[in-house]
Specification:
Rossmann fold; about 40% helix; 6 helices; about 150 residues; alpha/beta; globular; 5-stranded parallel beta sheet
Length: about 150
């Protein structure tokens, strides 16, 4: 299997959930490169160190300081293969525009993005990651004729 670049982002009230998910999937994640927003990446790195799990983690700025935008730029440059973004849907976020930009860029550039643990588990266990003949189709933005 090729080494993937997986973006991990979690809002404050979802960080514990992200760390737990990452620990549950530590063996899988240790075979890949992680790019995280700052605080989330720091928490995951410290937790993995305490469990003697070695993972390649790159930390961007925290989300409110531009980390979401940095990861969105990586998506545009095709430097991210998969994104896991545990969003706090119950509380307003001061950097909502950056959040929506990251989600939009994943959709526009056809990067799989999971926004809950179940979809994240489904995505990382997909056999398509191991199928070297599989090439995802690019989205087509063509006018639709309703006539």
């Amino acid at each position: 299997m090729k080494k993937l670049t997986i973006a991990l982002v979690a809002h404050d009230r979802r960080k514990a959930d992200m760390v737990e998910w990452a620990c549950h999937n530590a063996e899988y994640l240790s075979r890949h490169r992680l790019v995280c927003t700052g605080t989330t990446g720091g928490l995951i790195a410290r937790t993995f160190e305490s469990k003697d799990v070695h993972v390649d983690i790159i930390c961007m700025h925290s989300g409110p300081l531009g980390g979401d935008a940095e990861i969105a730029a990586m998506v545009v440059r095709k430097e991210v293969d998969l994104a896991i973004f545990l969003i706090d849907d119950l509380n307003p976020q001061p950097h909502e525009a950056d959040i929506q930009m990251l989600l939009r860029q994943c959709r526009v550039h056809n990067i799989p993005i999971a926004c809950n643990r179940y979809s994240a588990d489904l995505m990382i266990t997909s056999a398509l990651w191991e199928d070297e003949t599989y090439v995802p189709c690019l989205p087509q933005y063509i006018p639709y004729d309703r006539n």
